[in-house]
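Thread title: Can someone regenerate the structure for this chain?

I was given the following input by a collaborator and told the matching structure tokens would be attached. They weren't. Posting the sequence so someone can regenerate them.
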Amino acid sequence: MRVFFDINVVLDLLLDREPFVKHSAFLISEVERGNITGILSATSITTIYYLISKALSKKRAKKTIDILLSLFEIAPVNRTVLETARDLNYKDFEDAVIYACALHSKANVLVTRDIKDFKSKEITVLEPEDLLKITK
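Best answer:
Regenerated them for you:
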């Protein structure tokens, strides 16, 4: 299963955000074990670096990015993705870019804690706890 991770799910683990960290930790461990293929957008990587460097340190941010790059496929944000996002007519362009990245990376599922933000026709959009139910 190819699972596109919205940034909030990854940040729940990295920033130890309760009560969400447990679900995120399990899903990311499934990526680590190779039971699911995890995908992140290139823009998520840059945002994660920025947030971790501010919350913790640049050294920790660099190490975090190294780990994410070793575990996840990285979906590019290129002209095609941006044009797709524009044409989705989402209220929030950033969410549209995430959804377009998931589409172009051929994800089966987009996992997010903000499912209301994603109008979905082609990809199943699930909250972490709902994805856990089908991965266990």
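The mean pLDDT is 94.
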